Sequence to fold (275 residues):
Amino acid sequence: MRKFKVGIIGCGAIGTALAKVLIKDKKLNFRAVLTAVADKNPEQAEKLCRRIRRRLPLVSIREIVKRCDFVIEAAHPSISPAVASLALRHDKYVLIMSAGGLLNFPFKRLRALLAKTSGRLYCPSGAVAGIDALLAAQTNGLRRVRLITTKPPQALKGAPYFNTHPFPVFRSKEERKLVFRGNATRASRAFPQNINVAAILSLAGLGPRRTEVEIWATQVAGTNHHEVHIEGDFGSICTTTQNYPAPDNPRTSYLAILSAVATLRKAFTSLRLGT
Fold:
């Protein structure tokens, strides 16, 4: 049986975690082999190789797409649209971890590209529950999708939104402040590093202009808290997730990495559960 050649773009905590799984998980390495990595920082790539105890060639993004059947983007929202576009134009399979970046990809152009390619675009559910139900609801009579995210203030630091808006100041530890309210398109520009969940909901549901987003901050939030409210002809759904940070990257929810692992298993194994 031919094995899929896999390449990883981005050798940080997420890329390293997925590399470990590709090597150690018998359900995956039966069908897939990690072939190459890409990162703008050679030291980061060397660190990944040491962690997985493998020597892998460090190549360019274009070379990854050329060499590999399956490309994993685990780098940054600023490059995820270009990676997705390049891979799909070359009829490759591509998994995008920085899904928030895809909201900067015009939806009409993305749909046209997906219609022409024999490749596939995978976007894991990430740090939220209910995407399977949302996909089902979207087939008929979906009316409203709303995300309410609560994060500790330090998780929001550095966001472009605060170039023109004040950073929240708290009078007490218990105080909870609304930082942002708008649609997913605006949220992706204001908080590009914090909006993967809104991007997934947009892609699965009503699109970024009609997906409502609220971002709250509180000092007592030790975890990222996501509430998803969905309404349609089917009825209504409300899901809540309390996400612990990933062991090697406190800025990433551990569930987001586990979701990517589950997506890889779905891509490389015969059993596909869920919608």
Notes: The chain has ten helices and twelve strands. The mean pLDDT is 93. Residues 131-249 form a domain with the Dihydrodipicolinate Reductase; domain 2 fold (CATH 3.30.360.10).
